[in-house]
Amino acid sequence: MILQVLFPRQSLLERQVLHWIHRVPDLVNLKAEVIHGDPLSLTFSKTEFESCLGGKDPELLPEVRIQSVDNQQWIPEKEVWQFYPWSSTPREKGKIRVLISRDALKEFLIECFRLSLYRIKYAQTGSRVLLEFEQCPRYLQLLAAEKWQAEVFQAHSRNLFTPVDYDHPVAKHFASSEFDTHLGFQKVEVFRNLKLEDLLEKVKFGSNSREVDASLHDSNLEVQIEVSLQKDTRYEKPQSYIWFYEESERERLESWVASIHSQQRKSFQILRLQLPWKGYFLMKKTGSKPVSPPQATKSFYSIYPGEEVFCPVGLKPFPFLPEEEFEKVFERGYGQRMLLWDEGDSLIRLDLKNSGFEELEKLVNYVLSDYSEQIRSFQSMIFFDDPKVELYDWEAAQKPSDNELNDPVEEAEIKFEDVPKQEQPLSAVLKEEMVAQEAPSAETTDQMDYQAIVDRLNELRNQYMLERNFSSRDFLMEMAYLEARLENHRESLACAELLLFFHPDSREELLSKVSLFDSFCKLRGVDTVAIRNQIQPDNSGFRESDIEAMGIFLICQFTRLKQPQKEFFRSHFLRKLEESYGRIQLSRLVLILVHLSKLNAEFEFLFHKVKDHVLSRLFESGLVVSVDLPAFILDHDFLQEADFSSVENFYQTLLPKVANESTEGVKNRIPFFLIFAIGHAQNQNTTAASACLQEARRLVSLTKDPIHEALYEAYSELAQSLMSQEGSSLGSREKPRLEKLNELNQASKYKVNNLLERSTIFGGRDLGGATHHLYSEWAGLGERTDYELVQLIPREFERVLNERPGSKERQSFNRKRAFLAFLQVLPRLGEAFCFQIIDQIWREFPLLTSIEHRAAVLGKMLSIAYLFENREYCQTFYSEFLKLVDEVESSRVRVLNELLVPVVDYFAQYVDKQECLFTLEKMQQKLEGDYDSGRVMVLMARVFDQLQESEPSRDLVNRAVQIYIHHQSSDRKARLEFFQAMLHDLKPCTFDLKQYLGSLLIQNFEKVNDHLSMNEHCSVSKVLMLEFLISVGKVDEEMSPELKNFLMDFEFSWRKSFFQSLESLTPGEGYE
Amino acid sequence: MNESEDINQSLRNVREFARNLRSLFVGRERQVEMMMVSAIAQEPLLFVGPPGTGKSELITQFRSLIKLPDEEYFEYTLTKFTEPGEILGPLDLNKMKQGEFFRKTEGKLPQAKLAFLDEVFKANSAILNTLLSILNERKFYQDGRPVAVPLKILFAATNNIPVQSELEALKDRFVFKVKVNPVPEELWDDLLLKGIGNDVSRYFKQSRFVQDVASLNDFLVLYKTLQNSFRAYLEEGEDPYFAQSEYLEFKRIIKHIKHEYELGVSDRKLIKIYKMLRARALFVRGGAVEREDFQILTHLGNDSEEVEFLEKTLPEILA
To answer: Which residues in chain B are closer than 8 Å to A230, comparing Cβ atoms?
Structure first.
């Protein structure tokens, strides 16, 4: 056999020959014949060439072509490769091709899906299918080859594929082919005009409810794969999102609900079902980190993170489809919540509409039985929290059921109301599902209608997704109508209410299409006639739960109202509304209010109150996000989408109602102009935005309120940046740099931050971390792990020391704040580390310029020294303590307070009694008759009490109470705080001393009551006092008439305004 | 009792032992199973995990539940300053005077049948070589002459696996490295209950179980069974406890691991893996290897990252 090597050029031939000779010296003796022609060729005998080159030189030049000639006859070029052995060389990962028989395709594809491989291209080649993978794990390659005898190739170069990890000396020769070539061990295959297509696109998954088939479109290929749930073998088990409890487990669930904090309850929603299992679904809200619920019969996790498709824990859909495919297969609507589980061999799905779930917290009824019982259930909240924070933060029991409060039962209980609406949507859904699934071909008229409506709804949704204009009149009108046809009353009402709000002129047309009143009554399961009959001018005894239905009646029948009905709405209805507005959905309340305003309400102040509530809620969250709209609409930010002028117009319709412009009124108006400014800025309407900002500025200067100044600063900064295109979108902005914030006191800062945090504009809750950072960069320190803290504290310490703020005072302030934050967490990091840091703080201690700062830090350090019983540190810090006490001047008694608070409980224990008495005596000399002195007196009384010195302790308590009663100060807030602190600080004292305080309070009861009745925010203090009196046994049968009155008043205030006062902290109202 | 009854009894004992051990912990089922399998196969096992995850507790509870004289158990926490004498026993001074270099090995690693070495990778090079020969060849040099060590079961623990090359050999001896992660939050209630329970029973020296449910001998019986079955394999050329289809799958998975994760599987390792698979099959069902047994391959990682990566990704293949 003769081999012929072709060279395109003479120079190449020479170079190659030299190269060969260099590599293989035997070639010198080779008999080769150069044949001149076009192209040039070098001819060898096969044996010679093989013995010299075979397998030794895989690097044949790419430009060289080899042909073989057998007895002067050309043999096919592609067989040349057979003369040379393959070499095993591991190759970088590349495209993989699998040639597999059609029979094995189904099984192979199941394996691919199992390994989450979906990006597969395919082409048919005769009886086999060619599959191409961008990446294919080795396991699958081996499996294909070994189990199904498939040929597996790996990309070698552009068009060439060779067996995985094998190379051939002449591979490059084939690589130059313009067609795809598979160079295999047995044969070479060339694919001309190979067109690879996406396999998944060709696969159409069927979706009847119980099983899902997959079949390739191609008539020649048919693969059917059933989607099922299989054991989840993943290493990290996914977190549960939904837990199911059977009806019989209700008691266990209730006691768990009762045991958790109301804030924790807010992280859950609950749904009661009759089918398929009778019981409760408890759902964790996305993004929340709630407590673990009790052990459940079943629990479900979200298959696709962030999507509401759930599957039982321990199982996993198989094959695990990519999300888009899954959506297609199961035809899941936007925001539709779906549960999958298996029963026997089949896969079952259950659609849970959003409306089905109720807020867990809303279902909890706080019930008043007797005072002590009631208070006990709240005491941990009220008594031990920082009273300042509590007033803003504590929304735990905002929504009590007044019915229940009016009708006390034995003990506090939690009720899961058997709300009919919970069952209705689900049964409707199930019904729909069943109709749709069981008789897909039954073309009854109803069925057609149903299908048409669903299609149209989908169309509208798609249209919405494109145009993003939900406030369009036609869109809302049609949605309201179609949702009503499907008996989705909740969604229908939401759309209708928005329509009425944005387009009041469409009222008549809407009412002709959708019967709002009937829809609402169906939704709530109330009787329309009964509601109508109650609307009588002399009826004041109707139930609060009927308020909303009556409101809807008002909206629907407004133009047809009879005089007696008008009277009813002006008086009794408004009064009842004032009590329960907090529980009514905002959009509904807005509409009721607009209509009421046209009736000239009898009690204007009540109207104002409700109006203020509405305005503040609008400010906080915007109308759209408060409405129960289909979820796909709510995906978008209110401000970016809303028709802004509608909101402004609405505001203007309510504004003239404010007759006398009180400070409160002005304060309430400020946020609106700020929010309008943002809206206009978003639309690049510079003139309008500036006008709004100017108006806001004017109002701010009228009120001189620092909180509003800070808010103004934040909003105007945002508006400016929106207009200058810097801040591209709302809600994702970085925290505003609020210089004003540093000038505020802690409570105001808290309030500003709270408002910004809740604001849609500033990104809602996501901003939490950032706003915390705003007022205290150390806020989250306590939540870090010990390990993190050990790393973090030395680093941060260094950073704080190296900071160079403008003034020394500022530096001292920053350091104090940091030191206190560190000292707060240090004890849990172990004694050694703790004192290592304390040493460092002690070194910097003299540089704290203000005596207040030094006192706060020293008090804390001393308390830690006592905690660890470290004598040396105790002595050092105590002598510094004495020095500071000496330094304090009478005018700065607050310092003593700072010093004493952390160590008050250690003093009696660790300091010698005489020494202690001496020190207390020294402190006493500094005290005067103000509230600060009063607080120190209370603390000192506690120390005396521990030293069993009852006389001085009683004396100090008496003095403190006198200060509270008689001190003349205009600072009402300080007085209230002092009162709360007095009760709080004396809580750990002996019963004797507490009883003494109790008797003092009863003696001065009238004055205390006067003080606490001045402002409804004092309700917390009333509760405090009542609890105190109960704990010292001052509340019994022989109560004085005053005290009885107080208790009655307390109940009144509790029921009527306590929760509401907490809730109604609108932007305009202050703490004071 | 004949031999097969013996084997069955030992198997029952070991399973009961595993049940007892499992019930003391929360979320440690896999770890306990690996302990049993490696004890049967007499292969060393390494636990890797952050401090406070109960690695040592697993082993000390294993020891407290097994019937074993104290002198046959050795436990030590290694540091970089640990001297050979602390592990191997002090030098015999009398013999030294006579010019012989002997150690007094009573109560030390060379005489232990069950051993626990905490922080094993902190061993310094003086100890390292001795450890290697004890681990691999089960022998120990007294005055230059090899002496067999009776060590049957060795557990070790470490916070993480270092990357220093001088420790490669030691790492390779521990074919299976099992990660011990903190207990997930949803199991905290159970964790506290059991943790406090263990603490209380330790304080009051109470045992919640029949303590001597299994002895070291039970593990030895099973090891012997394993060896006998291998003999059949050698004689017949085909392993009756490893069906052809499973054997092919096993090779596929090992090749996959080798290529996809670029993980070194040395020849020694391959043999030990085979042995461990057979041991698991024996422990779990007293019979042939099934696909489910391949789960133990998730613990083949060589360093901390590989251990974690394999445990996360391999189950997908093994599903």
So the answer is: 319
